[in-house]
Design brief:
Helices cover 58% and strands 0% of the residues. The protein has helices at residues 15-28, 32-36, 51-68, 72-75, 86-96, 98-113, 123-139. Helix 6 runs antiparallel to helix 7.
């Protein structure tokens, strides 16, 4: 099984989960650094490769991997040549989904404020529900501080 088969294709409602799984896969493939812009991949070039060709190969691998994790209807949005740069592609996908993330964060915050113990059969299930909501908020870049 190829690693990308374990990541469901991006669609409108699954961005938060997709972004985490896609980032993990790109790290596993050793190309996350070209996606986040922190540098080229850390693998040294083979004797026949130059650093530039290694960087180009990493860009191609990252862009191809990201593209393969998009539903075909979304993939067509990112066909322009500028999206051959994996950082540009990742950043654009992220910005396209920012509004969804914001709305999801507001929704999750509302769920957290209404998460009452009496609604759950046990304290353990109540705590688990709160932890899931807090994890979703973290994905939405919302932090919950202990009081």
């Amino acid at each position: 099984m190829s690693p990308t088969t374990s990541v469901r294709n991006l669609n409108e409602p699954n961005y938060r989960t997709w972004a985490i799984e896609a980032k993990d896969l790109l790290k596993h493939l050793n190309v996350w650094r070209v996606v986040d812009g922190s540098g080229i991949v850390t693998q040294p070039p083979t004797p026949l490769e130059t650093t530039a060709s290694t960087a180009d190969a990493a860009d191609t691998k990252a862009t191809g991997t990201i593209s393969r994790m998009l539903q075909p209807s979304l993939r067509s949005r990112y066909m322009d040549e500028k999206f051959d740069d994996p950082k540009v592609l990742w950043d654009r996908i992220q910005s396209d989904f920012d509004e969804i993330i914001k709305l999801d964060g507001e929704y999750e915050m509302g769920k957290l404020t209404t998460c009452k113990l009496k609604s759950y059969p046990s304290v353990t299930e109540w705590i688990t529900a709160q932890e899931q909501i807090i994890n979703h908020l973290a994905i939405c870049s919302n932090r919950v501080e202990e009081r």
